[in-house]
Design a protein that fits this description.
By secondary structure, the chain is mostly beta strands. The strands form 13 sheets. Strands 2-5-6-7-8-9-10-12 form an 8-stranded mixed beta sheet, with no helix packed on it. A 6-stranded mixed beta sheet has the order 1-18-19-17-13-16. Strands 48, 49, 50, 52, 53 and 54 form a 6-stranded antiparallel beta sheet that branches. The longest helix is centred in the first third of the chain and has 17 residues, at about 240-255.
């Protein structure tokens, strides 16, 4: 139907009753890019029974495929998609997924969803990955020197979200019915987006009768009886129906949030409003549509431009009934009432279904993750109405509700009972009133103050359309209006973020993953968190810009201040009295944990300390280590019936107790090997204590002696330990000592890992956990049954498997040493991860070792993993 002709008739005051049927189509449209497309590669069916297609590149030189090139891409299902080469990111020296060595990867984004990734080694394409989000398939291929290869299909569930909704197929739209998120009947009967607003948009899913409207005249029925929103013909509303009614209302609420209108399901609010300030959308069944002759096979219908006009024309209808279509149909039909026409495209002049994750409200964007108002920016558009301006002419706009780049006092969050707590739905207003130009300039900032003692923060910011499905394993289509960047910062902004999220991180972009979820501790001072709408792809061929990007979001914010904690004091021995600092709180119960790692109690647990905790501020602990290690204290306090905890890190006394020092505790024992096991000298120091007797155990458990039992060693400071396993297991060594000629005994425990002789080559030195200075040679051996590897590689970097600091390339079999380095003085104290790889019989295997950058004693737990095949 020609919208312009209708508009002309309305403009000249025609009294003809205008009947505009909105038939929402179910087909998936793609846009016309307007550019010539180069064929990325050719595809042919493979010979034989495999049925796997073959691809062939005319050239594997990556320079032939510059960024920005528009390409045509044959897909494994036989179809062809258009795409753009958009970006390039770094490769991996040994990619464990593709099994290819790559120096970079170049990305091709496909219209309608999906991508092709070109895997590059130096300047040549060595493989591709094809992701088809329409058919939800995932294929990979390695390329030979001629640029040909076979596409192998892999399990798409491992790489893409397989719950991508199918348009207009209610039975296939996934739902995540968390009982906590299913509203009651009373809730959905009383929904209001802006209570008190004069303008009303009434969503009516309740069933009833309609009289005195133009629909009665056109259908020939003086009384039209319409069903309630139902999918099972029952008069009551089940969990799914209440859930869908709520989220359809929520979607319409977000679409109309910039305008001064109350979107409501409350009948009395609609009844009380004047005819000049309201319209209604009836949400009902196809059975009502068909039996009452309202329209043919349509998903919704409404009169154009009749909001606030003659009551005869102020009712529209929605017949679509799925989580991926109902809400957008409400907004679409109400948009007609405001005066909007259809957003069509070159493929379908009436209804553009969108591209990628985006679609226009006045098109047919079923199942899209982002559905927004439009002014015809997308390729092939045939309607250039400014939707915001047209709707604002009927409703006026709402002012922006939150400040942006304001002073801390302008939007300061208040302090309540020793903590901040806020659950807030923030509707999007329009920052500029004249002229109205979308939502592109708006952002929000919230300021708060942390007291000097510090506090623990929990902050979650989510698009409102995805807030109820954050933990959904499938991720529902929500038709959000908002894609955003988020950040938590100190104030004034120092140039770095405490936590941040960018919309460009998510591919494909989804409302239930574009969120900030941060838990941590903050020192005293001024802070802010900010919300700024940002589209990750502002190209209208593949994405959307910020003109209509601004919907509602939900902030959940809690800040607990520091609660009672244990003070370290000066720890001078194995026995110490800890002081409890109440920090201004009254506690009824307490419990003190002391552990070797954060939050543990492997060294000590007090059990519940009852009594007047406000006055009971001291607690004596015995048998603490005296090796200078970190002691991690956790003090639990019950305050107002709630259990709170605070952690403190102390340093144990050093000296005064004999301790093993060689080999380095936590390292691998790499002494003499024989079929009966490994033998090694264990050495210890008295640390200034006068000792009369030593005794040494080695076993498979704490305090065990099943591997070795030395007997009384007198005052010797070393012993040759035999019988240690050679299979990579943990070995427990206990050093016993007596200061009164064996009458009383104390002990000190250390652990090691035994060598992996049954699993191939291993690094012999330096010992894992050692400090490596500015750089060092690592050495290895092939001793053991699995010797004679023919290639080696050594990587070193700040993360496991990284080669950022050292990448050796292939090392021939006659070498047993390689120099690693590359870290700077600024890296001293950081963990160095060394990956050692060897090849035997054509199969690469690897082990990981950890060290410390710089000089001084080891400050981390050493790690050595069992060998695993590369790719695992």
């Amino acid at each position: 139907m020609d919208y312009r002709r209708i508009k002309d008739k309305l403009h000249f005051g025609s009294k003809q009753k205008l009947f505009v049927k909105t038939v929402l189509l179910a087909s998936l449209m793609t846009s016309n890019t307007g550019f010539s497309q180069e064929l990325l590669y050719s595809m042919t069916a493979a010979s034989g029974s495999s049925g796997q297609p073959r691809v062939s590149f005319a050239s594997t030189d990556i320079d032939a495929y510059p960024i920005g090139t528009h390409v045509s891409v044959p897909l494994p299902d036989g179809s062809t998609a258009n795409g753009i080469i958009t970006s390039e990111h770094s490769g991996d020296p040994l990619n464990s997924n593709t099994m290819l060595e790559t120096t970079s990867n170049r990305l091709v984004s496909l219209e309608g969803g999906g991508s092709v990734e070109l895997h590059i080694y130096n300047n040549g394409i060595v493989g591709i990955t094809v992701t088809d989000l329409i058919n939800q398939t995932f294929h990979r291929s390695a390329l030979d020197s001629l640029g040909t290869g076979v596409l192998i299909e892999e399990d798409a569930n491992q790489y893409v979200c397989t719950s991508y909704p199918v348009e207009n197929s209610p039975s296939e739209i996934p739902l995540f019915l968390d009982p906590a998120n299913i509203p009651s009947l009373s809730t959905i009967q009383n929904l209001q987006s802006k209570p008190g607003a004069t303008k009303i948009l009434y969503i009516d899913p309740w069933g009833g009768t309609l009289t005195g409207s133009a629909w009665n005249s056109t259908s020939g029925n003086p009384t039209i009886t319409y069903d309630a929103y139902t999918q099972d013909a029952s008069a009551s509303f089940n969990d799914t129906e209440r859930y869908e009614i709520y989220h359809a209302w929520l979607e319409a609420t977000e679409d109309y949030a910039p305008f001064d209108i109350n979107v409501t399901t409350k009948t009395s609010v609609f009844t009380a409003a004047s005819n000049a300030n309201k319209s209604r959308i009836i949400s009902t069944t196809n059975a009502t549509r068909d039996s009452q002759g309202i329209c043919g096979s349509c998903g919704g219908v409404a009169y154009v431009g009749q909001y606030g006009g003659n009551i005869l024309y102020q009712t529209g209808w929605t017949f679509n009934s799925s989580i991926g279509s109902t809400g957008m149909t409400h907004s679409h039909e109400a948009g007609h009432q405001m005066g909007l026409g259809h957003d069509g495209g070159s493929a379908n002049p009436s209804y553009y279904s969108g591209h990628g994750v985006w679609g226009p409200i006045m098109g047919a964007p079923f199942g899209k993750q982002y559905v927004q108002w439009s002014k015809g920016d997308y390729p092939g558009a045939n309607n250039f109405q400014d939707d915001f301006a047209v709707i604002a002419g009927k409703l006026n706009v709402s002012p922006d509700l939150e400040g942006w780049n304001t002073g801390a006092g302008d939007n300061q969050l208040g302090l309540t009972d020793n903590y901040y707590a806020m659950h807030k739905v923030v509707p999007k207003g329009v920052p500029g009133f004249a002229p109205l130009d979308g939502l592109s300039d708006d952002g929000d900032a919230f300021f708060f103050t942390v007291p000097p003692a510090g506090g623990d923060i929990d902050l979650k910011i989510t698009p409102r359309a995805g807030a109820d499905t954050m933990n959904s394993p499938i991720g529902e289509a929500r038709a959000s209006n908002l894609s955003f960047n988020l950040g938590l910062h100190a104030h004034p902004y120092p140039g770095f973020s405490i936590a941040s999220v960018s919309s460009s991180t998510f591919s494909p972009l989804r409302p239930n993953t574009n969120k900030l979820d941060y838990t941590g501790s903050l020192d005293g001072g001024e802070y802010l968190f900010k919300v700024y709408p940002t589209s990750p792809d502002s190209s209208w061929t593949t994405g959307f810009d910020n003109w209509g990007n601004g919907g509602e979001y939900v902030v959940d914010f809690n800040l607990d201040f520091q609660h009672p904690f244990a003070e370290c004091g000066n720890i001078t021995g194995a026995n110490h009295t800890f002081i409890f600092n109440n920090n201004g709180f009254d506690s009824t119960e307490r419990d003190l944990f002391i552990g070797t790692t954060s939050g543990t109690s492997d060294l000590y647990s007090s059990a519940i300390l009852r009594g007047d905790a406000a006055n009971d501020t001291r607690h004596h602990v015995t048998n603490l280590p005296v090796d200078g290690s970190n002691l991690y204290l956790t003090l639990y306090s019950k305050i107002d019936g709630l259990l709170k905890s605070e952690q403190t890190t102390c340093v144990a006394a050093s000296g005064g107790e004999p301790a093993v020092y060689a080999p380095l505790p936590g390292s691998i024992i790499t002494g003499s090997y024989s079929t009966s096991g490994t033998s090694e000298f264990i050495k210890w120091k008295s640390n200034g204590l006068t000792v009369t007797n030593y005794w040494l155990y080695a076993g498979s458990g704490l305090g065990g002696r099943n591997h070795f039992n030395s007997g009384d060693l007198g005052t010797d400071l070393e012993d040759y330990v035999t019988g240690i396993p050679s299979d990579g297991r943990t070995v427990y060594v206990r050093l016993w000592y007596s200061t009164n000629n064996g009458v009383d005994w104390n002990y000190n425990d250390v652990t090691y890992r035994s060598r992996n002789n049954d699993n191939g080559p291993y690094l012999t030195d330096p010992a894992p956990g050692a400090a490596l200075g500015e750089g060092i040679h690592v050495n290895w051996t092939d001793a053991g049954p699995n010797a004679t590897s023919d290639r080696y590689r050594v990587y070193a970097g700040p993360t496991k498997g990284s080669a950022a600091w050292t990448y050796s390339g292939n090392i021939l079999s006659d070498k047993r040493s390689f120099y690693i380095g590359g870290w700077a003085p600024a890296d001293y104290g950081k963990t160095i991860w060394v990956r050692f790889l060897w090849r035997k019989d054509g199969v690469w295997r690897r082990q990981n070792y950890s060290y410390v950058a710089g000089f001084g004693p080891a400050t981390i737990d050493a790690e050595n993993t069992r060998p695993v095949p590369v790719g695992q």
